[in-house]
Amino acid sequence: MSTDIKKSHFFCTASGPLLCNNESETMRVASASKPALMLAFLIKYSDLIDGKVYDSAGIGQAICHGPFDPKSSTAWKVLEGTTATYSVDKIVVRNLATLMGAWSFAEIAAAMMAPDAQSIENAIRSIGLNKNDFDSPVYNSATNLAMLALGGPAGASSAIAKLGFDGAGDIIFNRYMWEPRANIADDNTATAKSLAHMMQFINCYEGKIGTTAKNALNAQSAPFSKNGILKSLPPVHAMARCIEHSGTKIFYGMIYNVPSSSTLDYAALETEFKNDESILVDEAKALL
After folding, report:
1. What's the fold here for domain 6-286?
2. Per-residue pLDDT averaged across 40-48, rounded?
């Protein structure tokens, strides 16, 4: 066990807490809080699912923080319905939500809810794309566009707070994806408790965001979860997840941070996180 790792976790059911440690401490969270941003985005634009929510200059602002060149990305082109041309007009709410959470061909097709979903999947496969082609530049650019549509990082944070679940106001976006994060005040943060309640809120959400939006929101992974990983210094590993045991759903958030003063690398952080997660999950299940 490394003393260089700052740890927090919160496990709960709909009835209340199960396990907790430093659950209300603000920590760097990487991408683990993106489901809250996606839900806020989809709620705001639920009536414009096939509409564009930014001007043509917006995509430039969204990608300028990283290495992404949309004109060379086959992933974007497939979701536009063609591999031959690039058109910013085709990147609409539906496609942004899809790209933010796209992890597999089946999920991409389901999230788009298109009549020709099978054709979309076949087109992706026919040009040799696989899961890894929907990589960090693609889904982080989609996240930046959604954030831009909400009014930037501050607007996204405000929209998430208005979702109203316990700890929603503790999920803070201070930067676009890829922007510098030297200090925690410059980074995207959350608490373990807010991540667990985010998963509970999304899992139980009955609001009217439309079938397409709902499927896109749930196209994260199975079991429904979202991790957050930053391998650059200072490294971060976080997880927001919903699991089920003996007919009861368990929601949890875990965040492990390495202080800027430490030289501990991501590999060591990941190993300890996964070992602890396995132990904590078993302990939570035993409490039901």
Report:
1. Beta-lactamase (3.40.710)
2. 83
